[in-house]
Write a structure and sequence with these properties.
The protein has about 140 residues and is mainly beta. It has one domain: Roll (Thiol Ester Dehydrase, Chain A), CATH 3.10.129. A five-stranded antiparallel sheet has the order 1-3-4-5-2. The N and C termini lie far apart (about 40 Å).
Length: about 140
């Protein structure tokens, strides 16, 4: 499955690993592998596992922007486009959509590299909103 394609170094030589997918938006925030424990008996990865990985990736970028602790408050526009299989390498790319006074909205895309190949496919995307938290665990202002 070739998905949206990948941009590599063009060498095609041994050890050449494609860079980010050409159509991916944002910064690489997480890369992991899908394991059998994350799958149903048919070998498809549970959507909840994938959503959790995306939440971790989005929270990482939100935390950096908020300069501290954040909590997920909303997930919108979640779209599961293609299944993820055991053995796929999953990469999450994130970009900031909006920064409010106490919240950060992050667009998260999940891409899968199938098996040992170089083919990439966008498998899931969603919009996650995080609120910045103070030491008292209440919403706090995000520095400009």
């Amino acid at each position: 499955m070739s998905g949206d394609g990948a941009s590599g170094d063009g060498s095609g030589g041994m050890g050449a690993i494609p860079d980010r997918p050409t159509a991916a938006k944002g910064e690489l925030m997480l890369r992991t592998f899908a394991f059998p424990a994350d799958a149903n008996p048919a070998g498809d990865i549970f959507g909840g596992w994938l959503l959790g990985q995306m939440d971790i990736a989005g929270a990482s970028l939100a935390r950096r922007r908020a300069h501290g602790r954040v909590a997920t408050v909303a997930i919108a526009q979640m779209t599961f486009k293609l299944p993820v299989f055991v053995g796929d390498e999953v990469s999450c790319y994130c970009s900031i959509v909006r920064v409010g006074s106490t919240s950060v909205t992050i667009d998260v895309e999940a891409w899968a590299r199938r098996g040992d190949g170089d083919d990439l496919a966008r498998v899931t995307e969603g919009v996650f909103t995080y609120v910045a938290l103070g030491a008292d665990r209440r919403a706090r202002q995000i520095p400009k």
